[in-house]
């Protein structure tokens, strides 16, 4: 169900013909026999509201990314979603929540079979290779997921079959002929009015083909009022708010039933009791959020999977697949008598230098290349800091380098490095005071505590850019404080001035300790390097809680590590050439430029 597979409707009412009632007495299409359509009460559970009255501390926080479509290797769009999800998961773990972070791959459908054939592999071999490339990229990006589901897993097929049977027993599946214009890349039928000239799909810019099939349909229109009630009771079900407006507009315009099977696609899960058809990829893949809750290799039931942690706390998706998650999915769950997720968050798209990315334009952004050049911390920080989560965002290499150097190398990295240098030179790398005693009567402590409070608020509300800003502001305050107090001068004076300087060093290092915790959801490896330089172990870092951002972690007598830059400053050819030219003008030897990373 990859972000990028946009939805533009899969109507049955305008072109469906030859509807016929089956043995299980399911309803005909609305457009063919509106008077005969009967309303079957929704068998949804009592709690369809996305806000539980009193969440138990033991309830898991279940967070999902889309299941990414394996027609091609991962791109920056899928990496962006997963980086954001990982930051949210890490923050929730700091709050001591039992987090179940789910990601995975959507591996069925016509486009997969076509891609496999083009690569000279069978579909299973193709899916294995691409799915593996996602896992490798997630490792490179420091993604710590808990569950990785593949829709070709045996446990998943069993859950899909049970779910299909539940919906069937609710009377919400019927059979009809369908004829329309089909986009193979979107894997869905299109309304002709939505297409560009010459029946071109506006998403993939390829012509749609005429296709006629005998399909099974889900009675989505039956759940229009229930979906309206859900959004009225809980407007936070869809976030951000402008995405809610989109969803309400779709529902208000009238919902149409959609096809949930394909007669012409072999690579998929067979429809129960009709092996001539396979289940439509979305009716299949959305169930991955539930089947993922089973253990690997486990052949559990649908109900066992639900009991492991459903409903999901948050579905994190790209805005192009919002309709599937905010309209189709809750209706399907209601039909099966299963709770809907707590919330769906649809984020924006990424562009490069102000232009939409595409292979035809030659401006694609490969996440693996970015990580190899700049490191995971830089990639994670830039996209979460520079893109207001929920809106579209743009990447330019110049801005990337400027932001990362200014924030991570200078504001944070350099502050730690020079402070530890002063401590080593004047105090033998040993703290002379507790951080609480050192900050007595110093306003900086209260200012830092206020920013920590703000950062927590921003994380809780998925304002990831604002959370980064709050943490960076702590670093700015630390830099301002050390510049104003000038401990290097005070140490030289000796006596009370030197004692105050020793306290100031402790204050700055306590500030850095807090930054290491508050920044860890965004830049985990950088945060670990900061924390270990402050004399702590990696094991101590792994068990940190948000509560540990409280002022007072550093104690007198604690020994700091040898000062060493924690973040590599990115040097460009332009910067190096300028430095070389400057040296040459002063009689220095000019060096040939080379692009890469140097220590700050």
Automatic annotation (TrEMBL):
Q: Where is this region: Disordered?
A: 571-600
Which Enzyme Commission number(s) are listed? 6.1.1.10
Which Gene Ontology CC terms are recorded?
chloroplast stroma; mitochondrion
The keyword RNA-binding belongs to this UniProt entry's keyword annotation: no
Where would I find the Methionyl-tRNA synthetase anticodon-binding domain in this sequence? 444-580
Q: Which GO terms describe its biological process?
A: methionyl-tRNA aminoacylation
Keywords of this protein's UniProt record, alphabetized? Aminoacyl-tRNA synthetase, ATP-binding, Ligase, Nucleotide-binding, Protein biosynthesis
Q: Which family does it belong to?
A: Belongs to the class-I aminoacyl-tRNA synthetase family.
Q: What is this protein called?
A: methionine--tRNA ligase
Tell me the organism: Panicum virgatum
